[in-house]
Amino acid sequence: MDVETNSSKLGDKCPKHGSDESSSECAFCVAAGGGSTTQDAVFGEITEGGPNYRDVGFLGTVALMMKTQVGLGVLSIPSVFDTLGMIPGIICLIVIATINTWSCYSIGAFKLKHPEVYDISDVGLKLFGPIGRECFAAAFILLMVFCSASGMLSIAISLNAISTHAVCTAVFVAVGWVIAFGCGSIQTLSRVSALAWVGLVSIIVAIFTVTIAVGVQERPYAAPREGVWTSDYKLFASPDFASASAALSSLVFAYGATPAFFSIVSEMREPRHYTRALIVSQISMTTIYIVIGIVVYYFCGSYVASPALGSAGPAVKKASYAVALPGLMASTMLLTHYPSKYIFVRALRNTRHLAANTKIHWATWLGCTFGVSIIGYIIASAIPVFGGLISLIGALFATFTSFQPMGCMWLYDNWKKGTVRGSRTKWLLMVCWAVFVIVIGTFLMVAGTYGSIVGIMDSYKASGGSAAWSCADNSNSV
């Protein structure tokens, strides 16, 4: 009898989180105060005197998910529709959204089964050993740092548009760095989530301002001023392979913050709410993307700007950038915070300094945020053909960290079982789906990288790139 009781305890799973441990041993429960200790599988012992890394609620999770994904990238969707045609563009967007939603769901499921996993490099270690860990870590850090640099540049563009280029652009990029370092140094995502809500609302209001403006104006700003205006939108288009690949990469990039969701679920107060928050986030985001893409492209046709904030003319562009500025700041803050937190956790993991307000804790944390932000600043200021380079990094690393690892994660957890909930047919279908996600992710990565390289070469031939630390107004083209 005693043997049976002990065996049943060993086989129990946490009823709240589904991890392999019982509720008294589950790393999520004990960190939330549901067990006898406050020992978290990632952050160690969480005390009242130190930062609470497990305090992000449901609404905060929704805000972090949406703000991490939704930025000015949404305003490249009308130009994607112009390249692919409206109907193929909508279909491609929905397909990529579906695959991405499953990938994000897999993050939550994998985290519940493996509470010790904090980021995508931990996944690489489990699946492929030390080499996998370093490859995934490099891809994640490069993606996030380049996106942080893009955020600083978008702040500079916004300030240029609002002020009508009042000072040298290099000064505005430096302002972006100050924001990235200062706000990105907030310790926990629970505190960041309040700013994420402000940023999310501001960016959504800005993009809908432009959407309404192009609908009520007689013609888009870039269209010919004389004659009768009729939109030249296309239901179907015939792009070449490089253009179509670059367009698909833009759609992937619109959902490309997927690997950051590891950090979000790791700091949730109740990880069992992750899937619910994900559904709210993905449905809301995809609806916004489709509405913006259809309305702006329908009214602007081939004269849509990319990003589309300039499509309705200088006055609307200035107003929309003013409204969008808090959203751009929030994006830059998050894109600086995520890679900094990864380096910080990896450096101090399994030490008391990770979750305690010691001198080593603060020196390491501020050193990480300073290092990431200053590298982002240098990238934003110094590299010619910056826009094309961002497209290349997005095509190469956003795809690599958003699709293939998630298919591999499912196979890692389910391949040896040979069944899913007693149904071999379902198991076989899920195996096929996981393999499909890996294959389509690889195809999009290779094709998108090729399209981005072609775009960089064409841009450099046309303009010779942009000067390092330039004072030129970078808001004129957007």
From TrEMBL:
Ranges in a coiled coil: none
InterPro entries assigned to the protein according to its UniProt record, in alphabetical order: AA_transpt_TM
Localization per record: Membrane
Principal subcellular localisation of the protein: membrane
Residues passing through the membrane, by range: 56-77, 83-105, 135-156, 162-182, 194-216, 241-265, 277-299, 319-339, 360-379, 385-406, 427-450
GO molecular function annotations of the record: L-amino acid transmembrane transporter activity
Keywords: Membrane, Transmembrane, Transmembrane helix
GO CC annotation terms, alphabetical: membrane
Protein's membrane topology: Multi-pass membrane protein
Sequence segments annotated as region (Disordered): 1-20
Occurrences of domain Amino acid transporter transmembrane (ranges): 59-453
Biased composition regions of type Basic and acidic residues, renumbered to the chain: 10-20
Entry's family note: Belongs to the amino acid/polyamine transporter 2 family.
Stated name of the protein: Amino acid transporter transmembrane domain-containing protein
Biological source species: Periconia macrospinosa
Lineage: Eukaryota, Fungi, Dikarya, Ascomycota, Pezizomycotina
